[in-house]
């Protein structure tokens, strides 16, 4: 076969070439890792890419992982792939890893453990040879099986898309692009191709087991559905195309809304509650997915039930928290929603606990704070530009001041009020987020609370026309 002459390519290879170009799966002079298990699909993929490497300007590198799950059969697969790569003059990385131990350690299903170990291996091979893409041998049959798996598990519209020509795999700090050049080729066609070129792919006996869900779908559900509708595969592919178009539109609309509704902070995302609630529910779903993906790096462990659970809680009262996988927490606040593994991530107050005496006058260093106490003339009183500076009638406060956290049963008389109020009720009424409340410094005299820092003074220590000496307190982050 003349590799430089596209006219000499087989019909299947020509179809793959067109698909790669249409989907822009690779660029010229690109290094590409090819995942080869030894089965017909991946062997076909490797052979086709070898035929196309000059036309596409690719430098190929084979990667094969022995999962140590099938004893000598797994070792024989590794030897086969190594020999095949040598025959095709493609460099190869062949390794073995203990998937069973990884499964036990991380409490995963065998399929999940194998996938995580395999893609971590592929990302490491890609990094070692300077590639940012890995080609895998998924076929249209895998695509259809994935759609059905998602349906059985209760998918949303995104799951109906099935497999995509390109995907992302979050591997530690580096994200890997996975491409699927055979996604329009059937499994039967890959087997025929291997026969045509006298390739002898390995047969994985575990594919005959009915334990994995995918195998049951392949061997039982697909034939059953075909008995109802012989064209069921075409019907599912049509559903996937429609779902892909719909999700693409929603993603673009959500990206447009994101700038006006969401804010990314360090380790947190906030959503404007009022604006968010005015969105159509389809966009709310999409924005929640975007928010979670930005924080976790992927939606691997996020299922439709998690998103629907968040949607059903949007009108809950402030303070409600919903737990998500990976330690993520969705917190409902008065005017926003907060997504973070650290609910206090956006608090202006550093972690703070204990009780500390203040130097009056003088400077006092507290955990996360530097507190300055000084006497000023009435003429020097300025309107505080934040809630962290306050003025007091020193004759009413005295100099035995302390700073502490709130305590059960705390009461004070907020400025402007004629009677005392429970501190907890005041914090709720003032819409202080629940995750912040234990961090708020409380300035006290031996008699009562003087100041809820950041919010309100006590009425009984305010500066009046009769005040002779003014005490100024200023909290600064240290």
Number of domains: 3
Q: Helix/strand-derived class?
A: alpha+beta
| Number of E-type strands | 22
What top-tier CATH class of the largest domain fits best? Alpha Beta
Q: N-to-C terminal Cα separation, in Å?
A: 72 Å
The averaged pLDDT comes out at 91
CATH fold field value of the largest domain: Rossmann fold
User: What characteristic shape results from the CA principal axes?
Assistant: elongated
**Full CATH superfamily name of the largest domain:** HUPs
Helix content: 25-40%
Brief summary of the model shown:
The protein is an alpha+beta fold.
Task: Reconstruct the topology from this structure.
Layout (H helix, E strand, L loop, with lengths): L10 H13 L6 E6 L4 H17 L1 E9 L5 H16 L4 E5 L2 H8 L3 H19 L4 E3 L4 H13 L13 E6 L2 E6 L7 H10 L16 H16 L3 H30 E4 L2 E5 H5 L3 H16 L7 H9 L8 E3 L5 E4 L3 E5 L14 E3 L4 E5 L2 E8 L12 E5 H4 L4 E3 L6 E2 L8 E2 H7 L12 E3 L4 E4 L3 E2 L12 E8 L1
Parallel strand pairs: 1-2, 1-4, 2-3, 4-6
Antiparallel strand pairs: 5-6, 7-8, 8-11, 9-10, 10-11, 12-16, 13-14, 14-22, 15-22, 16-19, 17-18, 19-20, 20-21
Helix pairs in contact: 1-2, 2-7, 4-5, 6-8, 9-11, 11-12
Can you walk me through this structure?
It is built from 14 helices and 22 strands. A six-stranded mixed beta sheet has the order 3-2-1-4-6-5, sandwiched between helices. Strands 7-8-11-10-9 form a five-stranded antiparallel beta sheet. It has 478 residues and is of the alpha+beta class. The protein has helices spanning 11-23, 40-56, 72-87, 99-106, 110-128, 140-152, 187-196, 213-228, 232-261, 273-277, 281-296, 304-312, 394-397, 423-429, and strands at residues 30-35, 58-66, 92-96, 133-135, 166-171, 174-179, 262-265, 268-272, 321-323, 329-332, 336-340, 355-357, 362-366, 369-376, 389-393, 402-404, 411-412, 421-422, 442-444, 449-452, 456-457, 470-477. Mean pLDDT is 91; it is low at 1-6. Helix 11 crosses helix 12 (304-312). The chain has three domains: 6-228, 3-Layer(aba) Sandwich (Rossmann fold), CATH 3.40.50; 234-340, Uridine Diphospho-n-acetylenolpyruvylglucosamine Reductase, domain 3; 355-477, Phenylalanyl-tRNA Synthetase, Chain B, domain 3 (3-Layer(bba) Sandwich).
